[in-house]
Amino acid sequence: MKTIRLFPLELRRLLQSRLTWLIMTLTVVSPVLGLVLYKPADSTTMLSMYLANPAIAGGAAGAILFGLLAIFELDRACRTRVDILTDAVVSPLTTALTRLLALLTAAVLTVGLTMLVWLPISAGLIGTVFNGVNYTLAYLLFLGMALPLGILAAAAAYQFTRRADLSIVVFIAFCALSLTVWADDWQLCWLNPCVWALSDDFSNFRVFRSVAWMRLTWLAALVGVWTISYLCIRQYGKGMFGSLARSGRRVYRPAIALVLLACSGTAYANQPFIDQSNPDLTVMSFYEIPYAEGVTFVRRTAQVFPDTTAGTVTGRASYQFQNASGQEQSISFGINPGYTISNVRANGADVPFMVSDYQEYNEARLEVTIPAEEEVELTMEYSGFPQESMPTMQGGKELSSEYLCLENSALSPRVMNVMPGEAGYPAEIEITLPETMIAIPFGSSQAEVIAENTDGTKTWRYEANSGGGILYAGDYICEQIEAGGMTIEFYYGRKHQAVMEEAGAVDAVKAVVDYCTEHYGKLSYGTGDTLKLIQSRVAGGGYAVGGASLLDEADFTIGNLEDTSKGAVPGEIFIHELVHQWWGLGNMFDDSDGSPWSSEGLTVYTTYRIVKELYGADYAQKYYVDQWQQVVDDYYLNFYVRYPEYLEMLPEAERLNIVGNLSGVRRYNEMPLKILKAEQLVGGEAAMDQILYDLFNRELDPIYPYLTYQEFLDACHLTEEDLNLG
User: Fold this and answer.
1) CB distance 549 to 526 below 8 Å
2) Residue 507 within a domain
3) In CATH, what number is assigned to the domain containing residue 328?
4) d(CA 404, CA 396)
5) Which residues does residue 302 pair with via DSSP β-bridges, in sequence order?
6) Are 323 and 417 contained in the same domain?
7) Four-residue CA torsion sign, 64, 70, 73, 79
8) What angle do helix axes 671-682 and 709-716 make, rounded to 10 degrees?
9) pTM for the model
10) Which distant-in-sequence residues (6+ apart) come within 8 Å of 585 by Cβ?
């Protein structure tokens, strides 16, 4: 009761302090650090740059500031030597609890002010893809939850030590651990959540959920630690341990602390988001499992039921095998480590199975014994929360009403050690999704709606031929474009429609596919009648297989489409990114020799050639060649280019930043100029087109399928010295 009566007085006193308002003001301003200095989310999506980074930076700065304020306030009575008088009137325990509540209330007010101030700023910076839900969740989780953690950690440090100077050292060290040693461990970085990207076009709920899990885990831990420190508050002239023994007589107090610490430890150990896959990516033991003797694959069917609200998957899978061995055989499957397997039956009878603890490449091994019968139908049910294997790049397994990606064993258990039958690995997949979502098998398969259900869902079905498979689904717009002798199915997120229309995406796709197919040849993975171009949730890159190619949404953000190093206007930058289907995916590049050689050089050059064909030589000269030349001239005048020995004297972070910028200039500007010079030396555009055609269609070495700078020079019958621009 005393705490309730004293709380308004303490809060009023706290809010009358100039120091408090200084701390609150600095916290409100601190998200600016995420725009200019501290940028942990390194993706180029608008929400990464202008929402995640400011919120994370503001949370880190705010937690440190409020932690220091907490130490100052807790030490105030001791510092002014009035603690003897106040302790005689009010219990030190009551005082500590009241001050904590006042500090937490001030933090809540600060979070509210910060969100109000930054709402119009964030909306203006992010533009058309701004979303109120993403904004609210980001600031509450990234910034809002950080402040109480900072207060609790600092208050606990002071209550243990009873010294302001030592408390500050301990608290700052605790913050430094999160910012350095623990920065890549998503569960330990309590101050700066491990968020590498937020999606502009699709849901971010998986990322938000993992941050919430981390925050709540630490909240339970720090409340528990604070409770123990609370019991250590000196009273009755006793020291820390004497006070602990006396305060602990009320058993519920230490019991609360222990329960909270136990809950925190349990949450840490049983997190559902990240698997325990072997971090050594050179180990491939699952690919070395011997094939089951005499067993061949006949067919796989699966019915998949994602719960887009909970982010979970339930499914039933059936596998038909021919067992010519006359004996029982052990069949191995890869399953997502987040799934539980049940009801495993062979020809209607229960059969033994086991899931190993060992995990590799986001899979655990399921072993099932099938009977000695010649024809075997194996059925199983599975369910769970699909886990990821890359804790620092969470989000790939996003599963919501806006987007999902189910890969291989996350779609249904993947057969590991059964030889294909005459038809290969035929599969029939059915998936039930919200009616707003489109199912897109990654490959040449086409999904069709087979049922419109009364609960607002649709059931899709498609045929495939693989042991695993990848399925994308989301709130997509599909544009069908006739180009390059193919039908291009261009899928992009509905939220990105305005950006795509402004960039002239459809026209760009047609121009690129027509031009590159004519000059370089058809894509090796798009030689059929249809090629799918699928915009994915931000994933850090793209890839391609027969009939489909993935386009990372980060390549088509508002910010990226304004990058003048790739083109003069958004439409031309869009062309640049599409050209990477030929130079980057259609041909991989070896850029390890220290030269400016990379996929970017040929991509920029090809973009220039397409733009020249579309808008004329004068336009291309002005907005491409002249721009390259100006940037390269400035590059050659750069102090660190002329005197590289001074670059080594700089601090590592500054040196790497400069090197990265200079390297970008070489890839995007110097290399296109070198290719243009090569074009002149080999006899013009037609001759260069023939050279590039031959390089694109060369027979690839399966062991080393990379295009090197030396191969390009040899094809041109030139040397590096021939392409010097000086």
Assistant:
1) yes
2) no
3) 2.60.40.1730
4) 9
5) 317, 429
6) yes
7) negative
8) 20
9) 0.84
10) 523, 525, 542, 543, 544, 549
For the CA atoms of 323, 328, 329, 334, the dihedral, rounded to the nearest 10 degrees, stands at 100
Give residues with Cβ within 8 angstroms of 156, minimum separation 6.
222, 225, 226, 228, 229
Burial code (b: 16+ CB inside 10 Å, e: under 16) for 483-511 equals: bbebebbbbbbebbeebbeebbbbebbbb
Q: What are phi and psi for residue 414, nearest 5 degrees?
A: -100, 125
Strands 530-536 and 548-552, by their bridges, are: parallel
Q: Which residues pair with 552 in a beta bridge?
A: 536
In this structure, are 240 and 312 located in the same domain?
no
Burial profile 165-180: b = 16 or more Cβ within 10 angstroms, e = fewer: eebbebbeebbeebee
DSSP bridge pairs for 479 = 490
| One domain for residues 264 and 302 | no
Of 375, 390, 424, which residue sits at a domain end?
424
Distance, in Å, from the CA atom of 76 to the CA atom of 574, rounded to the nearest integer, reads 60
> What amino acid occupies position 648?
E
- Residue of 134 and 536 predicted with greater confidence: 134
Instruction: Express each pLDDT in 498-507 by its tens digit.
Output: 888 887 888 8
pLDDT single digits (tens) 152-182: 999 999 988 888 889 999 999 999 999 998 9
Most confident of 16-25, 38-47, 227-236: 16-25
Instruction: Judge if 337 and 374 occupy the same domain.
Output: yes
Radius of gyration of the chain (CA): 30
AA identity, residue 674: K
pLDDT of residue 86: 55
Asked whether residue 702 falls in the same domain as residue 601, the answer is yes
Residues spanned by the domain of 591: 587-726
State both tokens at 485.
Answer: 């002798």
DSSP three-state, residue 380:
strand
For residues 80 and 529, what is the distance between their CA atoms, to the nearest angstrom? 82
In a domain, 533, yes or no: no
- The number of domains in the chain is 3
Domain CATH for 621? 1.10.390
Same domain (yes/no): 362, 237: no
Mean pLDDT score across all residues of the chain: 87
Same domain as 225, residue 303: no
381 within 8 A of 305, measured Cβ to Cβ: no
Collapsed DSSP state (helix, strand, coil) of residue 356: strand
Residue 99, classed as helix, strand or coil, is: helix
C-alpha–C-alpha distance, residues 308 and 325, integer Å: 43
| DSSP of 532-552 | EEEEESS-S---EETTEEEEE
- Chain CA centroid to CA 37, Å: 21
Cα gap 71→154, rounded to integer Å? 6
122 and 180 part of one domain: yes
In the block, which residue shows the tokens 């030349």? Answer: 629
Tokens read off for 460: 């899709």
Average pLDDT, stretch 449-465?
A: 92
The distance from CA 272 to its chain's CA centroid, rounded to whole angstroms, is 17
Identify whether the C-beta of residue 52 lies closer than 8 Å to the C-beta of residue 198.
Answer: yes
74 residue type, one letter: L
Give, as one character, the DSSP assignment of residue 286.
Answer: G
Task: Phi first, then psi: give them for residue 264, nearest 5 degrees.
Answer: -65, -45
User: Widest CA span of the chain, in angstroms?
Assistant: 96
634 lies in some domain: yes
